[in-house]
Amino acid sequence: MTAPAMGGRGRVTSAWRKRLEILFFVTPALALFGLFVVWPIITAVQLSVYRWKGFGPLVDFVGLRNYVTVLADDVFVNSIVHNLIIVGGSIAIQLPLGLAIALLLNRKMWGQGLLRTIIFVPYVLAEVIAGVVWFQLLQPEYGVIDGLLGAVGLRAPEQGWLGDPDLALWTVLVVLTWKYLGLAVILFLAGLQGVPDELYEAAQLDGASWWQVQRKITVPLLGPTMRTWAFLSMIGALQLFDMVWILTGGGPANSTTTMATYLINQGTRSQNFGIAGAASVILFVIALIMAVLYQQLILSRDTRSDVVTARRKKTKKVIR
Amino acid sequence: MKRKMRGAALIALGSTVALLAAGCVGAGSGPSESETNENADAQEFTWWHNSNTGEGKAYYDQVAADFEAETGVKVDVQAMQHEDMLTKLQAAFQSGDDAQIPDVYMSRGGGELAAEVEAGLVRDLTEDSADTISTISNFTDQYSVDDKVYALPYSMGLVGFWYNTDLFEAAGITDVSQSPTIEEFDGYLEKLEEAGTTPISVGAGDKWPAAHYWYYGVVRECPYDVVEAAIESTDYSDPCFLKAGEHVEDIIAQEPFNRGFLTTPAQTGPTSASGLLATEKVAMELAGHWEPGVAGGLTESGEVPDFLGWFAFPTFDGQGGDPADQMGGGDAWSVSAAAPDAAVDFANYLLSDEVQQGFAELDMGLPTNPAATDSLTNETLAQLIPVRDGGGVTQLYLDTRLGQSVGGAMNDEIALMFAGESGPQDVVDAIQSAAEAEQ
């Protein structure tokens, strides 16, 4: 009789102990999360329903008027379009290009390590530094790129690559591709290491060509990596700020504004903190919706444990 | 910090309720008047300024030391880079914490100052600085709210065309007028184009340098009182504002600007608008009194280029504004609401003949105290003084005058005009709707 009772008590205390332990280890992280993530979000929501100039108490409650102002502002609506162009453009350009380079660099060849490093270096550079470098390279008349074009007899656009409203966004996209291609390549390379050699060997024994091997084995098995990368790329593109701010500041003629540059322009520059708050909440909601949809529709295939792990276990068994 | 803010909010709320109950809510009675100044007799205060390098910093340290020796009050001097100072000032005001708000600080006047006054952050200097104000009364208008002076302007500079005398000469322009008409100015542009020289650089990427053209259009077409009345009544329908934009459009239509001007920054790096002037790539630039200093920092030798000359923004035949009026901006000393009385004495001391003369001798700005205007060392800068003090008014930069909210909307629209995507009426509409949204 005593034995089970004692055991019971022991189980209870150990359960409490566990809870205390969890509490002990999680609290600091939760506190930081609350302070630096949750609290700012709440503050932004709070600011978005007031008109506030940056000092004094929050007294001028305006309800949802700031949201109406933001959504009726062509500049903001165009910012969303620019963000979406960059989301789509980044994936459409970097996915095939990154995959091609990763496949190339995955083959045994001379200078492999060096090439990998070169491709990855732009990603390591601070975005601001890369931005300033490109800004100088792209200078009309005095920039290196205009100089090179001139040397081979081509004429650069009159107002420069960044000064022409029709070209600026595409120029920014090119610079972003240069900057972030390295991340795609390195992730794809890592993914490629996870594809077991036996599959290649088997395919080759079956007489598959190099192309067939890539199409039927490499790309499908790289799927989870590509989907995760696309997710990261999408979130990054939605929050794009630094590079645009350095290269164009949102100009010329608002042709490269993003949601983030819009809210800086309204917030710290024009001191319309309420409008900036509303814009940031909208940005948050858009990012959240896209992230959740992506999780549900695309990433769920990878996160559903049975498919992938089952496949892995199978291959492991085969190996053994 | 947050708790203090809540506390302040509660006090403000409480005092408002109390006033309401007493049925005596007077217009403009900010919280500053309901709070008693606890540290009026404190023997220590903080001073923020932006002369953070070289002789200027040393001079201000000396000024603070002299004041300490004289009065025994300790001055905690904090010299900061200009943009840093603005950011920190904004953060300090946002905190609403008296301990964080400096006691004496730089103010740019206009709508910004008005907003600070409305929030009860600034001390009324009308009586405590009456003597100083009478000395510099030419300039205190735009530092006043409801006829009370809240900041003491110590430097008031002008915007005008800084030009390269060598390039002008090479283009065959021998007779440069100090205050040209628009016909003469167009003649300069033509001759420079013929000589293959880019006439003007403008940092439209930063927006405000482009906006200065429009502000000057306003100064030329709208009498000072009309501008003030428009701001007062939130009504910008006077046709003079439209004319201002038309003048600017005419200048833009001649395509006198450097290539890529829509993304050119104002003053950072050799390919900025100031950099292009300093490195002799363009013939002129519309800029403030700071230009010699900025240009000096952008040349290879680090010296102020000796080819710099200055002339005023062109005048227009039959213009509505006084030709003697100019556009510019100044820096002023404000004293915060919770500052000790000694801080006011210090602000007055900063405007004294002695301190202003030393300020002028180092070319730190264009002094407002008439006793110091002859002390400027730099001759090019000194030639701005008679233009400024020639009987006209110096209209404050309009974005500062209108406050950041309206000013930001205005500058955005003017930048669009430079890109050919907006017109004179759009600029007026943008100002009108931003001003109405602020009501």
Write the layout of secondary structure elements.
The complex is a heterodimer of chains A (320) and B (439).
Chain A: H1 2-47, E1 50-51, E2 60-61, H2 65-72, H3 74-105, H4 112-124, H5 127-137, H6 144-151, H7 168-193, H8 197-205, H9 210-238, H10 242-247, H11 259-269, H12 273-303, H13 305-319
Antiparallel strand pairs in A: 1-2
Helix pairs in contact in A: 1-12, 2-12, 3-7, 3-9, 4-7, 7-9, 9-12, 11-12
Chain B: H1 2-22, H2 31-34, E1 44-49, H3 54-71, E2 74-79, H4 82-95, E3 104-107, H5 110-118, H6 130-135, E4 144-145, E5 148-149, E6 151-158, E7 160-164, H7 165-170, H8 182-194, E8 198-201, H9 208-221, H10 224-233, H11 239-253, H12 273-278, E9 282-287, H13 291-298, E10 308-311, E11 326-335, H14 341-350, H15 353-361, H16 379-382, H17 384-388, E12 394-396, H18 398-402, H19 404-418, H20 424-438
Parallel strand pairs in B: 1-2, 8-9, 11-12
Antiparallel strand pairs in B: 3-11, 4-5, 6-11, 7-9, 7-10
Summarize the structure.
Chain B: This is Raffinose/stachyose/melibiose transport system substrate-binding protein. The complex is a heterodimer of chains A (320) and B (439). Helix content of chain A is 77%, strand content 1%.
Low-pLDDT windows of residues of chain B: 1-35
The share of residues in helices of chain A is: over 70%
Tell me the β content of chain A: under 5%
So how many helices of chain A?
13
CATH-defined topology of the largest domain in chain A: MetI-like fold
- Helix fraction of chain B, binned, reads 40-55%
Q: Radius of gyration of chain B from the CA trace?
A: 23 Å
Quickly count the helices of chain B. 20
Q: What would CATH call the class of the largest domain in chain B?
A: Alpha Beta
Keywords (chain A): Cell membrane, Membrane, Transmembrane, Transmembrane helix, Transport
Family (chain A): Belongs to the binding-protein-dependent transport system permease family.
Organism (chain A): Promicromonospora iranensis
Pfam families (chain A): BPD_transp_1 (PF00528)
